Amino acid sequence: MDPRPAVLFDIDGTLVDSNYLHVHAWQRAFHEARLPVEAWHIHRSIGMDGSTLVDKLSKGADDDVQKRLKDLHTCYYEASAELLAALPGARQLLQQVADSKLQVVLATSAPENELAMLLATLSCDDLVSAITSSEDVEQAKPRPDIVNVALEKAGVSAEHAVFVGDTVWDVEASTRAGVPCIAVLSGGVSRGELESAGAAAIFDDAQDLCEHLGDSPIAALIERR
Predict the structure, then answer these.
(1) Any idea what the Cα angle at residue 25 is, between residues 19 and 28, rounded to 5°?
(2) CB under 8 Å to 163, separation ≥6 — which residues?
(3) What whole-number distance in Å separates Cα of residue 134 and Cα of residue 148?
């Protein structure tokens, strides 16, 4: 078991600029299924469990329709893969956390096909101690399950971890798991909403957090190692 404290990272919108690609893919999926949904409604649901998102935005459509919506989203999202890009400072932040002798854990509920694209974009396999995916839980954020799985894979308690995310769902999930959440604005959620959700600290993006690591909750983990 690795005794080092861990920094748990969401990926979409936190390390990779993908949130609006998801919005576009979902919007096309709902349009094709003749269930049009406004883009801003979709954006406010990005980051929550995929099945919950579909059920909410389709207003409880039947199982066949919901499955078709998920399949269409996958098709359109994969078609935009060339537009995926690491957010400013993402790789540098992971490197700095690893150099500080902390574990880097990717705590995402992305399905395996999306996770593969995200990992290829980040090119960070050499820095990562553990990774979660949708295969690890039945229901993801805002439930705390994926955070708890990430803690288990890292072999640490909540007191020896910090979560970094970009949505209110990230903040709610990590808080429910007893892990303080650092929020970044790169996912398109306002500072006020993240503060109201309970974020322990807020930075513009990964680059901003990297440059002010000593002023963030991660500094306390570095002192404990």
Answers:
(1) 140
(2) 7, 8, 9, 10, 107, 147, 170, 173, 174, 177, 179, 180, 181, 182
(3) 13
pLDDT tens readout for residues 43-97: 999 998 888 999 999 999 999 999 999 999 999 999 999 999 999 999 999 999 9
Which two structure tokens, joined as six digits, stand for 46? 């990005």
Half-sphere exposure of 144 (CA within 13 A, CB side): 14
SS (H, E, C) 108-135: CCCCHHHHHHHHHHHCCHHHCCEECCHH
Give tens-digit pLDDT for 130-149.
999 888 877 677 889 999 99
Query: Which residues, including other chains, have CB under 8 Å from residue 217's CB and lie 6 or more apart?
Result: 162, 180, 182, 200, 201
Encoded tokens for 148: 């708890």
